[in-house]
Design brief:
The chain is mostly helical. It has 2 domains: 2-150, no CATH class; 175-254 and 266-361, Helix Hairpins (Orthogonal Bundle). The chain has 5 helices and 2 strands, in the order ββααααα.
């Protein structure tokens, strides 16, 4: 058998002509046929038939473009055709005649075998062609399935890539927002530090003002005590004035009785009385001035204390608001960190999934 490849890329199985050894069927009982042994000489039949069969098979396997091949006819005789058959048979010996018949039978068997092989070859070619078509169809189906799966995987990878891009964009936005929040938190912390410093200064000022207020309260108590003393002094002076007036009346009575002797004493008493009145008026003026100053200082101290209490309450409220805002910022930052960590976990899982997708597809 020889494998030959045609122009249409089809593999065909070509037979090689061979020469089977078959005993003679017609003259099997004759002693001449049974005692005859063929010799290896070229008589013009077997060698030519065999060489022609081989040449035909080789030419068929050398690349012809037709689908079927036919063997060339085998000449059964190489003797001249002008001799009659009887003369030819008479000119030959019986052994040669038997040998010629044997060769003719073998050639007919070879022809029959060649026809059978050609039929088998055509059947094999059809079977192989059918298998080739089925194989091509299967390859087409497998190729289509492969391309379909490849497109599906590509679509899935594109979708995952889009998801990853969306996640990355969201993470970038969250990162920018987190940076802005961190900057705002830093600004708030700076403001809180400044407010803490201001609050500390205000506390110190409040302590100073409280100390000054206590001092001024002590001074006001002293002034009140002094005013009481002055009032008591004025009261005593008024009593003395009443007593002096009574004495003056008595003296005037005495003067009327003894005007000459008591003129000098009356003048002295009048001078003393006038001096006492002047002292009383001066003490009253000083007391009024001190009382007015004390009232002004008291109003200033009360007004400053009210302003200080108002400022302290505002600072306390502002400090509480800043502490609450700082707590909210810390909670938001913690939530953003958790969301960022979750997004990073999702991103890592998607990356691992994308890396493992080609391996699973293969």
């Amino acid at each position: 058998m020889i494998l030959s490849k045609e122009n249409s890329n089809r593999v065909l199985v070509r037979p090689i002509a061979f020469k089977p050894v078959v005993p003679n069927r017609g003259d099997r009982s004759s002693p001449a046929a049974s005692s005859f042994t063929p010799t290896l000489y070229d008589d013009g039949y077997s060698s030519q038939g065999t060489s022609r069969g081989c040449s035909n098979s080789v030419s068929a396997s050398s690349g012809e473009s037709s689908d079927t091949y036919y063997a060339s006819p085998i000449h059964t005789s190489t003797y001249p055709n002008d001799l009659p058959a009887t003369q030819h048979e008479q000119s030959l010996s019986p052994d040669l005649i038997n040998y010629e018949k044997l060769l003719q039978e073998k050639e007919s068997e070879i022809l029959q075998l060649r026809r059978t092989m050609e039929l088998n070859e055509s059947a094999m070619v059809r079977v192989h062609e059918h298998k080739r078509i089925e194989w091509e169809n299967q390859m087409k189906e497998l190729t289509q399935e492969y391309h379909r799966r490849l497109r599906l995987k590509q679509d899935q990878s594109n979708e995952k890539e889009l998801d990853l891009r969306d996640i990355i964009s969201k993470l970038e936005m969250d990162n920018r927002q987190l940076s802005v929040n961190i900057q705002q938190q830093q600004i708030d912390q700076d403001r809180q530090q400044q407010l803490s410093i201001q609050l500390h200064e205000l506390k110190q000022r409040h302590a100073d003002m409280t100390q000054r207020l206590s001092q001024e309260t002590c001074e006001s108590d002293k002034l009140r005590h002094r005013s009481k003393e002055l009032e008591a002094t004025i009261q005593t002076l008024q009593e003395k004035l009443v007593i002096g007036t009574a004495e003056q009346n008595k003296l005037q009575e005495k003067v009327s009785k003894s005007s000459d002797t008591s003129t000098t004493q009356t003048k002295q008493l009048c001078e003393k009385l006038q001096q006492l009145e002047n002292e009383i008026l001066q003490e009253r003026g000083n007391f009024c001035i001190e009382r007015q100053k004390w009232k002004e200082e008291k109003e200033k101290v009360l007004q400053y204390q009210k302003q200080l209490q108002k400022t302290y309450s505002q600072m306390y409220r502002r400090n509480n608001e800043l502490e609450q805002q700082l707590c909210r910022i810390n909670s938001r930052r913690q939530a953003r960190r958790e969301s960022l960590q979750n997004n990073m976990d999702r991103f890592s899982l998607l990356s691992v999934d994308i890396e493992t997708t080609p391996e699973s597809f293969c």
